[in-house]
């Protein structure tokens, strides 16, 4: 009989405040918050209340049962519709609704991580740039990609929509003229796009012609940041230069982008983020070190005084020199305001518009998993830099460095995690941090009996004892001369063993003694025995029955001793590199060891024989642990994966995906069936055993399917790329492509469409006396309606890719269905999209097929009639809405006026009838 197992599923993750792969954006106050910071938390989008330092929401998509979900790499807020665009490491983009916290639209077109996002003024278009050097413009209304711009040679780092000035901004117009002006401004809002990339170039794109009309060398090396305010562009690269550009999109002769000059920042590191303040008076530049430099825009009066002072100084130096008219430079317009020094490297910042009077504020994302808010004095400093202060800090929700150890309390309610400098205790159910202690560089931790105390071993060789009730450190013991790599509490809870780099294994007893100062009983550690070995001790464990103690050494061996007499029992050798972790089964019969040689060895403790050696991971295996009351065990490795194994059959049961960096440690629950892991990505993840059965053959088949699907999509994408490149070579233009990408979803959508067409054609050609297809009979629909329902369920962004996989014979059959749809006017917008996409993809074959001419003529005539009817319906609705608007304005635009103002208003209206708008 085939053995079945129970599947482990991810249930929660915590410990991440802000991941270093993403930027930070600020959301203004609303009815439920006083201002939030939105950051990427690995694969999730996190929203933090800045003032209270509380996590408001976590926006997660999908489930990571099969593979690790991509990290959030870029965020952008659209204020008009309160949307947030999130770019991910796999090239996908998800549009989130801030109010409902749900995904509105999903786009997938990039092959690399998304690095730049930008909405236009209307909020209906989104431009995205990626590490694949491509720029894609997306339409949020039709939920599809419009086109792909290919010209940059490296990662896109900045995108800005721009529009030419209309020249009517200061004219006061009434009535319909005002509405026309607004319409014209909206039409011009997304005409131009400015982009920068690591290739050091700044490009100006005309989105109407989809052509790059200007290219300038922005910096000698990479260009990392871009921002715009009014007619000024600012770029910055990997050096100290900040280039300022003049943008004149109305210019017909000459360049629309011209360089005005350069500013010099103090930091020598590359620029991470560059932002103008919303009022345009300040410019902030954040570098990859700990600095954020602020420049203040001088007023016209200040610039005049500065130039006059320069003239006076020049005149004093050379009295005989003729007076020369000085020109205003960029350095004259921007004044150094202050430099903010953060406690860690910055990864992004955003301005907080609703600051106190006389202050400017910004929120900063740091590389050490924290967020901070700073307030800067706006007034220019008389001597030196302006004052700034840190107003808020969000750091208690995670570790500053990678997590090196986790341990679970005996009641499975709490988990302790340790890193360099901090030890935190968490509530597993609520994911809240209960206690935070300062400690040394902790390498190992454990709860003591009673779950009131936590013990930690540090890199300095100390044992630190913490009391959870009083949130204090009770005792610090210098246990070893070198690193204390491992500690373990015995099963009976009366003693503890430690192993360190001083080649010693020390045994400790727990004793309760009265404190002379307070008179209260306290638990203390007393050194009992010492076992000296020949090499550094990397891991040490008691057997559950308390009879044996095992220690792994730096010489690649594992030595087993009797715990009572410390007499040598077994020497286990076979690993090619040092053993980093080991564990002993509940019945004290098996010992598992993991090493830097990527192998797990299973040993028998009766004779010391090696039952099996398993090549388990692609990198060093850092931790192994047995499941309670079982020979199944877990392993964690630097390859970012946790694996579940059968220790009797030596089979891999399940791969637990989720971490984005090496997994340093894991711990298995005592009573409940769950496992907790800690990683270099500073996250703590919990997997829980479910009731779903798992069979090894099915699991291996799933893994093979994943490999096949990944290679299939890659090959199809390569074929499409070659076809597109060949077509471009014929036409001579390679700057614009379609915004498509083959994924598993598009392939499945194409297969469903082919299956539906086959079912529909068979139903139409079948004898009426024969029974119908089971699906059509159950749904009680005809073949035309069934195929239409299938294609209507395909997402607009995936429609083109789904039609791309159809063979030509299926395309001919699809056109027969389209002819029926346009005749009955099902959904003319969707049908038009399917028809145009199909004709564009298979244009040459359709033109060469003469029998299709009659069918296409019928489709063209019926399609035009349907479009005319749709146009008439839309026009009628617009006229009705316009009439309702006029009626509303006529009856609701009222003002409170005194008698004299009322008479003047009546006289003005008598001369010219104008309806004022409010």
Automatic annotation (TrEMBL):
Domain of life, source organism: Eukaryota
One Pfam match: Beta-prop_WDR3_2nd
GO molecular function list: snoRNA binding
Keywords: Nucleus, Repeat, WD repeat
WD repeat boundaries on the chain: 72-106, 107-140, 188-215, 264-305, 396-436, 477-518, 572-613, 614-646, 656-688
Signal peptide: none
Region Disordered: start-end pairs: 718-739
Main location: nucleus
Assigned protein family: Belongs to the WD repeat WDR3/UTP12 family.
Name this polypeptide is given: ARAD1C36960p
């Amino acid at each position: 009989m085939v053995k079945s197992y129970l599947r482990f599923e991810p249930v929660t993750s915590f410990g991440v405040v802000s991941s270093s792969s993403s930027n930070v954006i600020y959301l203004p106050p609303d009815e439920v918050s006083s201002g939030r910071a939105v950051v990427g938390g690995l694969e999730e989008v996190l929203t933090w209340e800045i003032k209270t330092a509380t996590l408001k929401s976590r926006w997660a998509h999908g489930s990571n049962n099969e593979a690790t979900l991509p990290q959030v790499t870029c965020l952008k807020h659209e204020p008009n519709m309160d949307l947030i665009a999130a770019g991910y490491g796999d090239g996908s983009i998800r549009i989130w609704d801030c109010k409902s916290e749900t995904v509105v639209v999903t786009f997938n077109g990039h092959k690399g991580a998304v690095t730049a996002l930008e909405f236009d003024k209307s909020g209906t278009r989104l431009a995205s740039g990626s590490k694949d050097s491509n720029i894609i413009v997306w339409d949020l209304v039709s939920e599809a990609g419009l086109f792909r711009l290919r010209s940059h040679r490296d990662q896109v780092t900045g995108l800005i929509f721009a529009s030419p000035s209309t020249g009517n901004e200061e004219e006061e117009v009434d009535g319909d003229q005002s509405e026309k002006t607004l319409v014209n401004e909206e039409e011009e809002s997304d005409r131009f796009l400015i982009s920068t990339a690591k290739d050091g170039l700044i490009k100006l794109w005309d989105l109407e012609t989809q052509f790059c009309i200007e290219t300038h060398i922005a910096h000698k090396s990479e260009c990392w940041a871009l921002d715009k305010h009014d007619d000024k562009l600012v770029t910055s690269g990997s050096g100290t230069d900040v280039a300022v550009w003049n943008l004149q999109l109305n210019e017909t002769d000459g360049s629309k982008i011209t360089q005005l000059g350069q500013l010099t920042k103090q930091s020598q590191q590359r620029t991470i983020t560059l932002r103008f303040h919303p009022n345009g008076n300040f410019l902030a530049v954040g570098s990859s070190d700990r600095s954020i430099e602020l420049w203040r825009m001088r007023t016209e009066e200040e610039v005049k005084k500065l130039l006059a002072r320069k003239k006076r100084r020049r005149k004093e130096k050379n009295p005989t020199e003729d007076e020369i008219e000085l020109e205003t430079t960029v350095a004259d317009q921007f004044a150094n305001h202050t430099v903010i020094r953060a406690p860690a490297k910055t990864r992004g910042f955003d301005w907080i518009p609703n600051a106190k009077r006389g202050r400017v504020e910004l929120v900063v994302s740091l590389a050490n998993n924290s967020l901070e808010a700073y307030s800067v004095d706006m007034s220019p400093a008389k001597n030196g830099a302006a004052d700034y202060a840190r107003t808020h800090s969000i750091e208690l929700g995670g570790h500053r460095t990678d997590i090196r150890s986790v341990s679970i309390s005996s009641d499975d309610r709490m988990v302790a995690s340790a890193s360099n400098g901090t030890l935190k205790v968490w509530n597993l159910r609520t994911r809240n941090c209960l206690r935070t202690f300062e400690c040394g560089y902790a390498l190992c931790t454990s709860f003591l009996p009673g779950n009131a105390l936590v013990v930690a071993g540090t890199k300095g060789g100390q044992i630190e004892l913490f009391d959870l009730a009083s949130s204090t450190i009770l005792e610090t013991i210098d246990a070893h001369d070198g690193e204390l790599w491992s500690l373990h509490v015995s099963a009976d809870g009366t003693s503890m063993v430690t192993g360190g780099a001083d080649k010693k294994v020390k045994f400790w007893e727990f004793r309760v003694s009265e404190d002379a100062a307070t008179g209260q009983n306290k638990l203390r550690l007393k050194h009992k025995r010492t076992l000296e070995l020949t090499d550094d001790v990397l891991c040490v464990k008691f057997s559950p029955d308390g009879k044996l103690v095992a220690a792994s050494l730096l010489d690649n061996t594992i030595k087993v001793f009797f715990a009572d007499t410390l007499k040598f029992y077994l020497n286990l050798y076979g690993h090619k590199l040092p053993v980093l972790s080991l564990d002993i089964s509940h019945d004290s019969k098996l010992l598992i060891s993991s090493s830097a040689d990527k192998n797990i060895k299973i040993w028998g403790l009766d004779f010391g024989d090696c039952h099996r050696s398993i090549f388990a991971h692609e990198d060093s295996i850092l931790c192994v642990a047995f499941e309670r009351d079982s020979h199944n065990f877990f392993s964690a490795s630097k390859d970012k994966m946790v694996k579940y194994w059968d220790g009797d059959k030596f089979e891999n049961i399940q791969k637990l995906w989720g971490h984005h960096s090496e997994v340093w440690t894991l711990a298995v629950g005592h009573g409940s069936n769950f496992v907790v892991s800690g990683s270099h990505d500073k996250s703590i993840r919990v997997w829980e055993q479910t009731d779903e059965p798992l069979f090894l053959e099915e699991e291996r088949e799933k893994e093979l399917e994943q490999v096949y699907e990944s290679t299939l999509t890659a090959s199809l994408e390569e074929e499409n790329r070659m076809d597109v490149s060949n077509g471009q070579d014929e036409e001579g233009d390679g700057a614009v492509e379609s915004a498509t990408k083959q994924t598993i979803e598009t392939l499945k959508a194409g297969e469903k469409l082919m299956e539906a067409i086959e079912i529909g054609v068979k139903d139409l050609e079948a004898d009426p006396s024969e029974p119908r297809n089971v699906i059509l009979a159950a749904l009680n629909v005809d073949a035309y309606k069934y195929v239409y329902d299938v294609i209507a369920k395909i997402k607009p962004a995936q429609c083109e890719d789904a039609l791309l996989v159809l063979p030509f014979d299926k395309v001919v059959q699809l056109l027969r269905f389209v002819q029926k749809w346009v005749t009955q006017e099902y959904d003319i917008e969707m049908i038009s999209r399917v028809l145009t996409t199909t004709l564009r993809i298979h244009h040459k074959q359709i033109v060469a097929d003469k029998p299709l001419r009659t069918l296409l003529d019928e489709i063209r005539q019926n399609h035009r009639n349907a479009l005319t009817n749709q146009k008439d319906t839309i026009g009628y609705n617009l006229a009705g809405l316009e009439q309702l608007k006029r009626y509303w304005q006529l009856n609701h635009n009222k003002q409170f006026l005194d008698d004299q103002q009322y008479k003047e208003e009546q006289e003005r209206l008598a001369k010219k009838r104008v309806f004022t708008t409010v």
